[in-house]
Design goal:
Elements lengths: L1 H29 L24 H11 L1 H8 L5 H19 L9 H27 L4 H18 L10 E5 L12 E7 L2 E2 L19 E8 L8 E8 L4 E8 L2 E6 L2 H4 L7 E3 L11 E8 L3 E5 L2 E4 L10 H4 L6 H22 L2 H22 L7 H26 L9
Antiparallel strand pairs: 1-5, 2-3, 2-4, 4-9, 5-6, 6-7, 7-8, 9-10, 10-11
Length: 414
């Protein structure tokens, strides 16, 4: 009877709204104006599962995109295998449509990750239903373990990861993919040695130049505040892979480096001194530097910040980092990301003991990420986000329990 009540509620209210929201979102990010190219048909022959420079991040995002679809299919009493088949069918329609769309790539990898996401969503419905209708709290261990592992693995991906190819120094390069900084480099050094704007004069492998500790510094004539990331000093390898970038974005000093995440085809957040150029006028001569030792230090003239890095809340940037919006917007995403990670822990916990155990595992994973990976200590707002997620999850579970137990007018057939 309880199961009938919760399914009736979802059928009448939540399920249509979730379906409408999912269709609108999926359509908005997969469809563009008509522009057919017959040559795109050969892309379907591409059998790679991790494709492109962001292949791993795209695979995870494609999987997550179809989780709500599997959740919806399973809510109608279908088995997870049906969710897998429905996901495969819907993904096939989308991939077929993308053959006619400009700027889209139809590939078999999307079919695999989309259908896998639908399957995962169907499994999540099973856990959701068991928690609400039966009070089964065993899934809390899985939810808490997932958060702990995800944060620790995410932090591990931030380890610097240089290549073995020869390195080229660059002064305010015009790379095409980024705007060029409108200033001038007067001099630059790497480890107190001249840093030229051509192949670095060192014996290979050049990656030894970036063994800890090292410092990249330059004296520049400041340009205006660029609206997008603009490199001031950078190192690229022979294969045109970015190794280190010290640049500017608006009034921020930007630092990027090649990490294990990049090597494994994930995205990677940058690091900044917010407002580092705020007091710098066009034409001023200033010194900028990045020093990598036990911790990362960035400096603009007399303003220096050490211990700069990526916090657990910024781990969303491993999937799709947004460098254009304001820092306030990114910090809002940091908060919401941690809330979203910790909501399932609170939802699947039963009783104070289960809640405490799940919270301990999840927060323990956050602590482990800070202690054993390059992630840096989160601020108070991120700790509050974790607690809010735990509380919101527990409150949501109680609401669904109350709805499931509330009389609905349904009568059991005898």
């Amino acid at each position: 009877m309880t199961e009938m009540r919760i399914r009736s509620l979802l059928r009448r209210g939540w399920r249509p709204l979730l379906a409408l929201a999912w269709v609108a979102f999926a359509t908005s990010i997969t469809l563009e104006p008509l522009d057919f190219r017959w040559q795109r048909l050969d892309r379907l022959a591409d059998l790679c599962l991790i494709c492109g420079t962001r292949g791993s991040a795209d695979a995870v995002l494609n999987l997550l995109l179809f989780v709500p679809l599997g959740f919806l299919v399973a809510s109608r009493g279908r088995r997870p295998a049906v969710g897998l088949l429905v996901g495969l069918g819907v993904s096939s329609l989308i991939e077929g449509s993308q053959l006619f769309l400009a700027g889209r790539h139809a590939g078999l990898s999307d079919l695999v990750w989309n259908s896998s996401g639908a399957f995962v969503g169907a499994l999540l419905w099973r856990a959701f239903e068991a928690r609400v209708t039966e009070g089964d709290g065993r899934a809390v261990l899985g939810a808490a373990g997932f958060v702990a592992v995800a944060l620790t693995v995410g932090g591990s991906l931030l380890v610097p990861w240089q290549t073995d190819a020869d390195y080229w120094g660059q002064w305010m390069p015009d790379l095409g993919s980024m705007s060029q900084y409108r200033g001038e480099v007067l001099e630059a050094s790497l480890n107190d040695q001249p840093f030229p704007s051509y192949r670095l004069p060192a014996e290979p492998p050049h990656r030894r130049l970036l063994e800890v500790p090292w410092e990249l510094a330059g004296t520049i004539v400041a340009g205006g505040a660029p609206r997008s990331v603009s490199p001031i000093l950078s190192i690229y390898d022979r294969n045109r892979q970015e190794i280190v970038l010290l640049g500017a974005h608006r009034t921020d000093l930007i630092y990027r480096e090649r990490t294990l995440a990049r090597a494994l085809r994930f995205d990677s957040p940058d690091m900044r001194i917010l407002g580092g150029f705020s007091d710098v006028q066009i034409g001023d001569t200033v010194t900028v530097s990045a020093t990598r030792g036990e911790e990362l230090c960035l400096r603009v003239e007399d303003l220096e910040r050490c211990g700069v890095g990526v916090t657990p809340g910024r781990s969303w940037g491993l999937l799709f980092y947004l460098e254009g919006p304001s820092e306030w917007f990114r910090r809002t995403l940091d908060f919401l990301w941690l809330v979203g990670l910790f909501v399932p822990i609170g939802f699947f916990s039963t009783g104070m003991r289960g809640w405490s155990m799940g919270a301990g595992i999840g927060l323990g994973g956050l602590g482990a990420a800070v202690l054993v990976t390059p992630m840096v200590t989160p601020g108070l707002a991120e700790i509050v986000a974790c607690i809010c997620g735990l509380g919101m999850g527990a409150l949501t579970a109680r609401v669904f329990e109350w709805v499931a137990d509330k009389p609905t007018g349904l009568t059991e057939s005898v």
